[in-house]
Every structure is written in C-alpha cells, then in structure tokens.
Amino acid sequence: MKKCHVLSAWVIGSVFLFAQQKKQVSDSLTNSLISLEEVSLAGLRINENQPLTFSEVQAEALKERNLGQDLPILLNFLPAVVTTSDAGAGIGYTGIRVRGSDASRVNVTINGIPYNDSESQGTYWVNLPDFVSSVESIQLQRGVGTSTNGAGAFGASLNLTTSAPSADAFAKIASSAGSFGTLKNTLKFSTGLLNNHFEFSGRVATIKSDGYVDRATSDLKSYFFQGLFQDENTLVKALSFGGHEITYHSWVGLDPATLASNRRYNPAGEIYDDLGNLIGFYDNQFDNYKQDHFQIHWIQQYNSFWSSNIGLNFTHGEGYYEEYNDRWKIQNITFEDELNFDYLQINPITIGGETINSSENISRKWLDNDFYVATFSLNYDKTLTSAVFGGSFSRYEGSHFGNLVWTQYTSNAAPNHRFYESTADKNDFNFYSKVTHQFNNAWTLYVDLQYRSVIYNSKGTVKGPSEIDFDDQLSFFNPKAGITYKASEASRYYFSYAKAQREPNRSDYENGTPKSETLHDFEAGWRFKKQKIQLSANLYYMDYKNQLVLTGALDAVGEPIRTNSGDSYRFGLEVDAAIQLSDQWVWQSNMALSTNKNKNFYFRKNGIQQNLGKTNISYAPSVIAASNLVYSPSTVFRIALLTKYVGEQYMGNIDAALSKLESYFTNDTNISYVWIPDSWIKEVQFSLLINNIFDKKYSSNGFFYFYDDDSSTPGEVVTIEGVGYYPQAGTNFLLGATFKF
Q1: Distance separating alpha carbons of residues 659 and 651, to the nearest angstrom
Q2: Is 34 exposed, middle or buried (0-12, 13-18, 19+ CB in 10 A)?
Q3: DSSP code at position 155
Q4: Do the Cβ atoms of 345 and 291 come closer than 8 Å?
Q5: Which of 199, 516, 709, 712 has the lowest CB atom count within 10 Å?
C-alpha cells in the first residue's frame, strides 16, 4: 500500500511538472504521429470502401458509461450483440455473443496481438478490468471479416487499439460507486510529448463489487503503462498491462424453483451436514488469476507509399480456482466424482477395520501458461491501390494441474498433492495478403487471401483423472473477396464472400474427437452517410460445415460443452441508423433479424438415436434490437435512454420446450454533466448510470442439460432434461466523477 501511495504521488507530481513546461510541438510531428497510428491499424481494420460489415466505436463515446462494468457490457448496444454477466451486474465474469456466436468464436486482438486464450479460444475480460480506460477505439467486424491474427473469426472480430499518445500532459482521477457495494478508482496520466519525441503514460485501477448474486464478489486490480518514441517516420511503442482478479464463484446458476423463490441465491460453496441441512458456505470458493502482457510495436514509414509494422508480445498468466467438495451435495445433487480417492489419486485408508475410499476435500485447479507472439505487416498505399502483406507466429505453452489442499480423512497424500497434470503446446502460423483496388470513381475490388497452420498437442491427465493425449496438425486456406459500388458521395453498396476454417478447442478434445469447422460467409449491404444521417443495412448468409455448437451443458468450471452439428446456417438482416433529429436530439438504433438452423441434427433420446431434422441453433435469438436516444440541451449536459430487446432463444439444439430462454426488454438511463472550473482543475465530469430502470426480472443466460435414466423402469431408458439460469440485477445504479488536471 505504501508503494502505491509513493507511485501515485510520483505520477501526479511528474505530470504537474511537465504541464508547467511550455512545449512547442510542431504540426508536422503531430500529423505524422496520427498517420503512423493509422498505419498500425491498416492490416486488421476495414473501412467504408471495403465490402465487409462493421461497427466503429471511439472510447470517447463510452466514457459516460465507463463506471466499472466490463467491456462486453459497454458494447451491449451494438448490432447483433448479446451480453451476459455471471454475477448479474456486469462486473466479474462477463461474456459477449455476436450473431449467436459465443465469445470463443469472436476473434479479439489488442493492437493486432491475439487476445483469445489459445486453448479455450475464449476471452476473459475479468483479467483486464477497466481496460476501456486505456482503449482509443474499437472495431467490431460481424461475420468472418478481414483476415486477422489468432484463431479464425466464426461470428465476429473485435479489434481494440490502446490509448493514442497525447501531445499535452494531463492527470485524471476517476472514482465511481453504486449498487451492490461497487467501488471503482482509476488514476491515469500522460507526460505529453517531451522534446517532441517521447511520451510516457499509464493507468492503475481497482474495482470491488459484491455482485447482484449472493457472494459473487469481485476484487479486481489492473495497470497499463506505455512509453513511446516518435519522429516524422518512426513510431516505437512499448506497453505493459495486466490485471489480477479474485472472484467468488458465480457460474453455478439457478434451477427454476430457486429462481422463482430467491433470484439472488448462489449455490457455490454450499456446506451440508449428514442429514442434508445447509450449515454454511465455504469462504474461499474463489477464482484467483493474474495475467501480464508485454508488447513492443515498431511502425516505420519509408516513403509516401510504403510502411511496415512489427509487433512482439509476451503474456504470462497463472492462477487457480478453489472449491470445497461437500459429501452430501455431491451424493444427492451434483453426482460428481470429486470425493473418490481414485479421482484424487490417493490410496484407500483403513480406520477401525473400515476401508475409506472417499472424503470431503478442498482442491485447487491450476492453469499456468506463457504466450509468445510476433506480428508483421508491409503496407502499400497509393491513390487507387492499397495492399497489406502480413501475418503472425505464436507459441502457447500451458500447464494444467490440480492440487489437493485438504481432505477430511488423511491418506498418503503429501501436502499439495497433485492429482492430475497435463501440458499443452500450440504453434500458430498465419500469413495474409490483402489488396484493395479502385477501378474508377464507382467500383472498388477487395481480395484477401490467408494461409494458417496450427500444430496443437497435449499430453498427461485431466481431472477425473483420465488421459488426454492428442497431436493435431491442421492447415487452412481462407480466401475472401468482394466488390464495392459507390453510387454517390453518400451511398455505397457492397457484396463479399469469405471462407473461414478453425480448429476445435481444448474442451472439445476432452469431450470426444471433434472435427475442424468450415464457414462460407456471404455478405451484401448498403451504407448511406450524410451530415445528419447515417444508415446501413446488411444481409448475410453463413453456411457451416461441422459447426461446433453449444449443447447448453457446462463442464465443472462453467465452460460450455460443444458438439459438431454437421450442416447448419445463419441467415439474417441487420439495420443500423444514427439520425440527428435536431440540434439537441440524436437517435441511434439497430435491429438484427435472423434464422439460425441445424439442417439435420441427430440426438439420442430415450435410448434411440433420432434425426430431429431442422432445429434451432442454441443461443441464437431471432430478434435483437437496441436504441440510444440522446438529449443534449448544451455542450456540458447529456441524458440518454438506452433500450435493449433480445428475443427468445433455445439453450440447446433439440428444440426442447424446457430449454427456451425467454425474451427480455430492458431500459437504462445515462446522465452526464461537465463542469469546467476556473482553477487548476481543468475539467470535472459527473456521470450517473441507472440500469434496468423498470426493474425487469430476467435472465440473459442459462444452461440446458440432459442424461439417460435407466434405473427407474427396468429395461427402459428415459432422457431427463434440466435447466439453469443466470439472473440479472433489477434496478441498480453507478455514480462517478472524473477529475482532469
């Protein structure tokens, strides 16, 4: 704590010192800095002249709502987006789905560096709390999008660019507080450009919340530091950022009866006596994980046409989740194996002539990994033709193991006995070539070719323990092409085709022998842009082969289980509008209509393999709509009404009535006021966010499971179905203030 106070004092003092210095930054250097920043985006981002579907968000547009909630929640109002929160209030473990595709199918890059976990392919924003405070801009590409680094996009690509350099020195202190004991504190600073060439900036933040769900606490810490050198033709940036999260388990969900009687109940950590009476909860039922990222980027402009971008990254992550395995609960509710000595890899013991081969226990399941990445691109940009030649190489090294912390009955196990252990290595090579050529004022051609090679292997045991031993080598060629027609200065039409292929994730290998997936994505759209109105409409057809769809079931840590579905498709229409109704009123809205089907889905029901024919793909609502109505009577005051509708969706692929997640309609209010005092404080911004103002009782996520019962009726197999839900908070608020010096 003392070190934190010293660091804070040094940062604020340094910034004020630099702010007192009169620096003359030449316009040419400032402009070259902006130009070089754009070069760093050229390889992975798309623009309105290219025939792909995307939304662009500047971090400035999110600052009024950036009061502690995770990045997916802040992107909730983008087209075709559905977000989820385990703890119910947007802090802790959160998720995002785009066009019905879960986060493991959304390719995420930070400054062009892959962020998706190499094995699960998911993204865990809880590991980077308050990261939006260090983001400059976000581009969400729906569909396959442009070729990118990391796992292939099967629903969307999310490209984040961290904070741009500031020519002027500043310091910001942002604090917010609200419902469920939520408290966020952020300190951000920049030295401004020193000697026209150097800048140092950073951020430290803490977020605490009790969560809407009982005991779904979050204790989150994060940091971001950046140093750069730039001149007219060179930009070199070094970044270090990361986070440490400690969250109480809230991934268990609620059965329908408990949801009806006590929406905030959390079954995690339950402790029962021998008669099944609940006597308490385990205090340390925590997820504890720390992740650190280190990046270096070198951007070089050689002449008016040619430039290059080289990036290096190292990420280290390690942590565990701890759980109490209660005898009565496992034997009567969950029916898992965590009590058995065979599972724990320890020998039976004899006490008073009785052989003991199971025990209540506390375990920690660990992940320790390193991720190395090198990215490169060579960019050519002339009047009619632009081209990017680039790619990446990454290596992942992971270790999975479980330690036994305590057992009710002492056996031969040593302290921290390791009851399973496996290692994993994954090499990923990717090369792409993109060309955009404008034939005349009307027609522009886009061609994008990508080759990707993946070598993924794992050896050892997984919890159970059972062996995991695979060595997969896959190669993918993913072509993309399209054309844009410029009908006028305001109107453009486009059509594109893109192919994507990707490998299964670790859970898929653990649960069977999965096949790689293939997607053919067809996009046709229209963009219209004038001073007071922007419109876009997009029609898409995504045809899948061996799509790995969510079954609705979860594994022991709340991760979704998937299965190859054979042939399937997603077909939809997306409409997006931004209209300035008057000098004081602006309305932004979007709607996504879709049908998402498995063509021939096989399922073993009541002991008989059945072809269910055409079924709905899980977690794919046919209607998603959002609205943001903003009233700004002055430049310093703003009030917005944010509305979200998500239609009903199935949590499985067999169209079971029980698996249907009901639709929901929510409304939030966001109010902000900027005060500019005549003092050493340059600006103060006050923000109020009231979520779910009409106190809607809803669940944004859930799970569906089934199992065969052959014991109730001799000779007969009956498939039993069950569901669970993740309830979201009713009316709640966050109030914050940001001071800029």
Answers
A1: 5
A2: exposed
A3: S
A4: no
A5: 712
649-650 and 385-407 beta bridge pairing: unpaired
Nearest to 157 by CA among 112, 224, 94: 112
Backbone angles phi and psi of 271, in degrees to 5: -125, 125
**H or E segment and range at residue 443:** strand 443-462
Task: Work out the angle at residue 199's Cα, subtended by the Cα atoms of residues 165 and 686, and round it to the nearest 5 degrees.
Answer: 55
Bridge partners, 48 (sequence order): none
Distances in Å between the Cα of 692 and the Cα atoms of 75, 489, 730 are: 16, 40, 6
Helix (H) or strand (E) holding 584: none
Place of tokens 């989740």: 321
Q: Where are the beta strands (DSSP E) in 165-210?
A: 170-178, 182-190, 198-209
Contact 499, 521 (CB under 8 A): yes
Per-residue pLDDT reduced to its tens digit, 11-30? 434 333 334 433 333 444 44
With beta carbons less than 8 A apart as the criterion, state whether 125 and 412 touch.
Answer: no
- Spatial CB neighbours of 332, under 8 Å, sequence gap ≥ 6: 276
| Closest to 229 measured CA to CA, from 32, 380, 27 | 32
Cα gap 281→283, rounded to integer Å: 6
Amino acid letter for position 163? S
CA 543 to chain centre: 24
Task: Kindly state the tokens that stand for 546.
Answer: 């061996």
Parallel, antiparallel, or unpaired: how do β-strands 156-162 and 106-110 relate?
A: parallel
pLDDT in tens, 551-591: 766 665 556 778 888 899 999 999 999 999 999 999 999 99
Average pLDDT, the chain: 91
Q: Can you tell me the distance from the alpha carbon of 556 to that of 282, in angstroms, rounded to the nearest whole number?
A: 17
62: CATH: 2.40.170.20
Least confident of 399-408, 601-610, 716-725: 601-610
Helix, strand, coil share of the chain (percent; to 5)? 10, 55, 30
Local structure of 36: helix, strand or coil:
helix
Number of structural domains in the chain: 1
pLDDT for the residue numbered 466 = 85
Domain of 165, in residue numbers = 2-740
Residue 266 token pair: 């959390």
Provide the 10 A C-beta neighbour count for residue 386.
20
- Rounded CA separation 245/454 (Å): 30
Instruction: State the Cα–Cα distance between residues 235 and 296, nearest whole angstrom.
Output: 11
Tokens 């006597």, residue?
279
State both tokens at 418.
């390791």
For 270, the token pair is: 């339950």
Q: What are phi and psi of 219, to 5 degrees?
A: -130, 100
Residue type, 104: S
3-state secondary structure 319-384: EEEEEEECHHHHHHHHCCCCCEHHHHCCCCEEECCEEECECCEEEEEEEEEEEEEEEEEEEEECCC
Binned at pLDDT 50, 70 and 90, residue 38 comes out as low
Tokens (6 digits) for 529: 């842009």
Give the pairing type, strands 533-545 and 548-554.
Answer: unpaired
Which amino acid appears at position 731 of this protein? T
Q: Which residues pair with residue 686 across a beta bridge?
A: 673, 737
Give 150's contacts (C-beta < 8 A, 6+ positions apart).
107, 108, 109, 114, 115, 116, 392, 394, 428, 430
CA distance 240 to 680: 30
Task: Please report which residue ranges of 501-652 form alpha helices under DSSP H.
Answer: 506-510
Half-sphere exposure at residue 14, Cβ-oriented, CA atoms within 13 angstroms: 16
* Spatial distance between the Cα atoms of 322 and 363, rounded to a whole number of angstroms: 6
Burial classification of residue 490, based on how many CB atoms lie within 10 Å of its CB (0-12 exposed, 13-18 middle, 19 or more buried): middle
Backbone angles phi, psi at 559, to 5 degrees: -80, 140
The answer to whether 573 and 625 have CB atoms below 8 angstroms apart is no
- Among the residues of 532-573, which ranges form H helices? none
Collapsed DSSP state (helix, strand, coil) of residue 7: helix
The DSSP output letter for 77 is: T
Name the residue with tokens 């892959």: 114
